[in-house]
Each structure stands twice: as C-alpha cells, then as structure tokens.
C-alpha cells in the first residue's frame, strides 16, 4: 500500500493556505487528500480558515468569530502570499464540499478549530453539511478537541474521526476508541516505527503531520507510513515515486 499524500491546507507551500486555489492545485498535482481548517463565524457559518484571527492571512484584523461569513469573504486572503492571488477569498465549507463532489478520488480531512466555548451547534452544522452534500465517504474529521470528536461520533458514527495529538501517548489507538475515533493524526515529532507497527496491528490508519523535510518524508515512506500531511504535495509525490514506485 502506497503512502497517501495529503496537502496541508491545500498546496500551502506554493499557494495561499486554505483557499480554493490551494485545494485545486493539490488535486491537480495528484494529491490523495487535502487537509483544511474550519472556524465558526459571527453568524454561525462554517468558514475555512486556520487562525482564530484574520490578521495573518488576510487584509483585515480581528477574530474570525467577530466577522460574519459575508464580511470574511470580502477580505483578500491571497495577497499576503503573492499578488497573483489577490482575488482569493475565504471559502465556506459548503463551497469546498460542492467542489469535492466533482473530485470523488480526493479525501478531505477537516480539522475543527475549537477555540471558543460558545461554538454552540458547531459539530451539528458540520455533520449536517457532510450529509447534505453526500461526502461522508470522502471526509475525515480531526481535532485537538477530543470532546468535539466524541460529539461528531455520537451524531453520526459512520463519519471517520481522528485524534490530533502532540504527546507520546501509550497505545493511542486504545484511547482513540474512547472518543469514537478510528484513526490517528500524530505530530511527526512523536511518530516512531513502534507507533506505526502497533497502529497497523490495531487497524488504525496513521496520518502524520506536518512533514516538509525530504529526509523525513523518505524515512516515513520507507517505513510504509499510511499517510503524511505536507505543505508540498507535489514534492512528496515525487519522493513517493522514488521510494515506492509508480
């Protein structure tokens, strides 16, 4: 089984992160999947953006939570990366789902960015959108907030959930089961051969984040890591071809 390549926030090493341009580029170069981040807006809509503020990746300022989706979509989210992307806007999750329907070979890893305790009905909206667009087979939900994963699992146990973590957890597949998760998304710094072996024996896919270094990519692919998440999917695909063949 070849290592699957997920574009981290799309092809974010070559395009502005979490934009349709970055997602389309990742699919274009042959990525198996895409990772993106979702926040709640002021009007309780699902916006695709990483930070809890708009300051770093837009020409605006302030918390995402203090903007409506319409206000967010009036911001320029591409110029900070390059002037050629000045027309890029914050996508809604529904917009991404609409595109995803046309690329059924792509998996979509949605990270729930749960920074506020008042994200009421957040998981419900996520699940409803997945069901409405009929993309359940393509979607993976991940989060550092494992309460959110438990809630998603209770709402629809057929949606794959993955625990995001940065610690050296003992047999993390056993812990993951307690929140209804069936896959592991560990930081590369806590990923070692024993984890890959144990997870495989337990039937838990492992998708390691975020790997851009060529030597680390080669090491994990040589160890037959099930999937890696990278800012440079095209580079990772080239390395995969070298290590694992066509």
Distance N to C terminus: 12 Å
In CATH, the homologous superfamily goes by the name Phosphatidylinositol (PI) phosphodiesterase
CATH class (first level) name: Alpha Beta
- Model regions low in confidence, pLDDT < 50 over at least 5 residues: none
Please tell me the CATH architecture by its name. Answer: Alpha-Beta Barrel
The helix fraction, in percent, is 25-40%
Element-level helix/strand string: EHEEHHEHEHEHEHEHEH
Helix- and strand-based class? alpha/beta
Sheet-strand content, in percent, reads 15-25%
How does the overall form come out from the CA principal axes? globular
Organism: Pseudogracilibacillus auburnensis
Pfam families: GDPD (PF03009)
InterPro entries: GP_PDE_dom, PLC-like_Pdiesterase_TIM-brl
GO molecular function: phosphoric diester hydrolase activity
3D structure, described in words:
- Strands 1, 2, 3, 4, 5, 6, 7, 8 and 9 form a 9-stranded mixed sheet that branches.
- With 246 residues, the protein is an alpha/beta fold.
- The chain has one domain (4-244): Alpha-Beta Barrel (TIM Barrel), CATH 3.20.20.
- The protein has helices at residues 20-29, 69-72, 93-100, 122-132, 146-155, 172-178, 193-202, 214-222, 233-244, and strands spanning 4-8, 33-40, 46-48, 107-112, 139-143, 160-165, 183-186, 207-208, 227-230.
Question: What are the key terms here?
Answer:
Glycerophosphoryl diester phosphodiesterase; nine-stranded mixed β-sheet; single chain; alpha/beta; TIM Barrel; 246 residues
Protein topology:
Blueprint: E1 4-8, H1 20-29, E2 33-40, E3 46-48, H2 69-72, H3 93-100, E4 107-112, H4 122-132, E5 139-143, H5 146-155, E6 160-165, H6 172-178, E7 183-186, H7 193-202, E8 207-208, H8 214-222, E9 227-230, H9 233-244
Parallel strand pairs: 1-2, 1-9, 2-4, 4-5, 5-6, 6-7, 8-9
Antiparallel strand pairs: 2-3
InterPro entries: GP_PDE_dom, PLC-like_Pdiesterase_TIM-brl
GO biological process, one term: lipid metabolic process
Domain GP-PDE: 3-240
């Amino acid at each position: 089984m070849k290592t699957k390549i997920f574009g981290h926030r799309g092809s974010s090493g070559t395009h502005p992160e979490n934009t349709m341009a970055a997602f389309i580029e990742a699919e274009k170069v042959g990525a198996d999947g895409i990772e993106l981040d979702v926040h709640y807006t002021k009007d309780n809509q699902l916006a695709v953006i990483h930070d809890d503020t708009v300051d770093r990746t837009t020409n605006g300022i302030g918390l995402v939570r203090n903007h409506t989706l319409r206000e967010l979509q009036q911001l320029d989210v591409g110029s900070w990366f390059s002037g050629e992307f000045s027309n890029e806007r914050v996508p809604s999750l529904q917009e991404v789902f609409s595109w995803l329907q046309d690329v059924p070979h792509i998996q979509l890893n949605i990270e729930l960015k749960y920074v506020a305790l008042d994200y009421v009905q957040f998981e419900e909206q996520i699940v409803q959108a997945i069901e409405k667009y009929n993309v359940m087979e393509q979607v993976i939900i991940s989060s550092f907030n494992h309460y959110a994963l438990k809630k998603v699992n209770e709402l629809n146990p057929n949606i794959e959930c993955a625990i995001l973590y940065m610690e050296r957890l003992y047999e993390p597949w056993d812990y993951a089961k307690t929140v209804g998760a069936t896959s592991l998304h560990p930081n590369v710094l806590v990923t070692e051969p024993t984890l890959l072996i144990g997870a495989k024996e337990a039937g838990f896919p492992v998708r390691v984040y975020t790997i851009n270094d060529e030597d680390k990519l080669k090491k994990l692919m040589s160890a037959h890591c099930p999937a890696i998440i990278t800012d440079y999917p095209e580079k990772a695909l080239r390395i995969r071809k070298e290590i694992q063949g066509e």
